[in-house]
Backbone:
């Protein structure tokens, strides 16, 4: 069992582990429990009523956070021909084909989002083992495999704070929603965007309760249980 430090133990005294909190209360509490000097990431964790082994119960998608993630997103684009010029003009941090693929195979992963054009996927496929487990593999369903004409939009979306969500093997979805330094209302709006996207992405094979539990936590903080009713009622409209 992990032994927690004195600062952590002191910080969590304000948390009632038996209670569920409204999203607004949880965000305020997360800020109150911060005990580190760096700007921690706030994450949303959803335990889903789905079977990760069932192909009809998979959940995967993307959404744009209204207020981004609070960090510079390093964008890599795997392309060739005219698409290279378009990606460079759109401000991608790294653009290339075979040379970049080889670099990734050798362990280089200094980027946050990978985008590829369809004609590159035959070559990019061999990176699945490396990129897949890190959530970096380009995929049409997440808007990261796009035609050359759509590269500018895809790169701009990545820069704005597009995040991917997917069901993991333990039936949980983990998604960052911003930094603890964000204003409360900005964190709430980012949280709303993710909840709406996950609800909208409900698979046809889902049975019973779709989202079983929800919580938020910071990088070094304890999990704060969310009251499901107000959480699932969040709306940006």
Residues:
């Amino acid at each position: 069992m992990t032994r927690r430090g004195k600062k952590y133990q002191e910080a969590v005294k304000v948390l009632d582990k038996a209670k569920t909190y409204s999203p607004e209360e949880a965000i305020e509490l997360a800020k109150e429990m911060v005990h580190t000097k760096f700007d921690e990431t706030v994450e949303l964790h959803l335990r889903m009523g789905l079977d990760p082994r069932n192909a009809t119960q998979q959940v995967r998608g993307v959404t744009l956070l209204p207020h981004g993630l609070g960090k510079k997103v390093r964008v890599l684009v795997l392309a060739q021909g005219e698409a290279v010029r378009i990606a460079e003009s759109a401000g991608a941090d790294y653009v290339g084909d075979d040379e970049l693929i080889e670099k990734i195979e050798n362990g280089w992963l200094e980027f946050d989002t990978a985008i590829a054009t369809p004609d590159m996927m035959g070559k990019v496929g061999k990176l699945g083992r490396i990129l897949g487990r890190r959530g970096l593999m380009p995929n049409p369903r997440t808007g990261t495999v796009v035609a050359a004409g759509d590269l500018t939009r895809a790169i701009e979306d990545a820069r704005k704070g597009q995040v991917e969500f997917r069901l993991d093997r333990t039936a949980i979805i983990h998604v960052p929603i911003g930094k603890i330094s964000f204003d409360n209302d900005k964190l709430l709006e980012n949280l709303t965007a993710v909840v709406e996207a996950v609800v909208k992405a409900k698979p046809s094979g889902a049975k019973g309760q779709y989202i079983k539990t929800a919580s938020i936590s910071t990088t070094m903080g304890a999990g704060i249980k969310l009251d499901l009713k107000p959480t699932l009622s969040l709306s940006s409209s």
